[in-house]
Design goal:
Length: about 325
Amino acid sequence: MLTYRDALRDGFRLINRIWQLVVMQLVAVIVYGVSFFLIVVLPVVIAAPAIGIDAGKLAGIEGIVRNLGDYLTQYFGLVLAGIFLFIVYLLVISVIAVFMYGASSGLIAYSIRNPSERFSLKRFFGEGMRLFFPMLWYLTVAGLLLMAVAVVSALIFVAASGFLGHLKNAGNALSYFMGIFILLLSVSVVMLVVTFAFAAVIYGTAILIFRGKGAIASIRDAVVYLYNRQSAYWLYCLLLAGLVAVMTVMTLMSISIGNMGATGYLLYIPYQLFTYIVQTYLGLIIIAAVFVYYYSDTFNAALSIQQKDTSSQGDPGQDGTPPQ
């Protein structure tokens, strides 16, 4: 059985071996920005003078906010066009995001199966194309699952708020402590549900790639696997806690840089880029560590059992029985 330390170590080593994945994620972000300019901004800027919009009248944020209703009525067609173009943009970046997630996850899984392999653009795009439609359906199902989790979490908080309001009206010490207990219990339940759902999505991705199952079957098997192998769930929680801790420290440093005046403004954009690189790198390590843990726990365990069964049978004639 692979330990948490071994899974994290192997995840680090794997991502360091195929570090070009981080570069590909940065390229994707640049593509998102360029796509927004080409799909949304540029057509609106070109169309604005054509329909008689005076840029001088729009030069003032306060004026736009104060006369927002008049602008929406006067340029309603342009607003609808902008909304349509933004929806097109969302569809474009969604397709790119699905491709990038499938390609990155597929390449990580391939590198686990083939430890000597290095990064290859051909393999990266090949995995992205191979897994695009399976990953599209899978992420659709996962998105619906996460939406359901969000609804359940909201209902828990609403119920807890109503109960807390009832306890507050009681006005005694016991009600006060009961309110704290209910609040902590609600937060704990929501955190458990949310982290379990995200863990199921990551492990479901591993099942989809390693076992080639469908979207619903992958999610179902991931839930069953996490229920039966709770150590896999706690591994994801530890990895997520590490990511949150690192990003919290970097966010606090970003606030400090922002308060440095002119020097802070010069350092702000490079620091944000560095923060995104670190976040992407750690996110890929989480996926790699989870994949390594699942692969070692299922495929290596199955191989060990098979080898044990084979060795227990022995060679023909070892037990005194002549070979048939």
